[in-house]
Amino acid sequence: MRKTKKISIAAILSALSVVLLYLGSVLEVLDLSAAALASIAIVFAQIELKNPYPYLIYFTVSLLALLLLPSKFSAMVYVFFGGIYPMIKEFAERRPGIVCLLIKVAGFLALMLIAALALVYIFLLPKAELFSTYYIVTFLLCCVTFVLYDYMLTVLISLYFRRLRKKIQRYLR
User: Fold this and answer.
1) What is the CA radius of gyration of the chain?
2) If DSSP codes are grouped into helix, strand and coil, which group holds residue 126?
3) How far apart are CA 155 and CA 173, in angstroms?
């Protein structure tokens, strides 16, 4: 595939991701789902376009989301989790079993730590609040959601390889 075609596909994926995040931002109920759907563009770029295109899509969508979205929460979910996790997942799944799991969990915990630090130092939440029942329950729900998200991403990737890749490949040549 030629470089101009890869750049064009990356631009289309970036635009689609920003539109999804915008819809999630406007319909606030869908903000987490929109970030998860927008992360599929990164997965597609990792499979079909290879490096550096997934990173370019991530940085482009992150910047545009932070600048354009009316609700910054959707943008922050994408920046701190939805956009970067597919890259962590790809890196982890090149490793054997338990190492893969450890990298994924460490990546998730690092992203949660960054979010907690942002709450304390950017949004000025008192440190003691992080250990309240509300935030502990929220953390546990995030862990369950992370496991489900990782599983569903794996299912979507295997579905893509089994059923869609051959059909899409002829348009990517």
Assistant:
1) 17
2) coil
3) 25
Q: Rounded to the nearest 5 degrees, what angle is found at the Cα of 128, between the Cα atoms of 122 and 133? A: 110
Q: Which two tokens stand for residue 103?
A: 């990298």
Query: Cα(54)–Cα(39) distance, rounded to whole angstroms?
Result: 10
- The three-state secondary structure class of 67 is helix
DSSP state of 91: H
Under the banding of pLDDT at 50, 70 and 90, the label for residue 119 is confident
What is the mean pLDDT of the segment spanning 136-144?
Answer: 86
Distance of CA 116 to CAs 15, 110, 120, 135, Å? Answer: 29, 10, 6, 10
**Residue of 70, 56, 83, 68 whose CA lies nearest to 27:** 70
Residue 15, pLDDT score:
94
> Helices 53-68 & 31-44, crossing angle to 10 degrees?
150
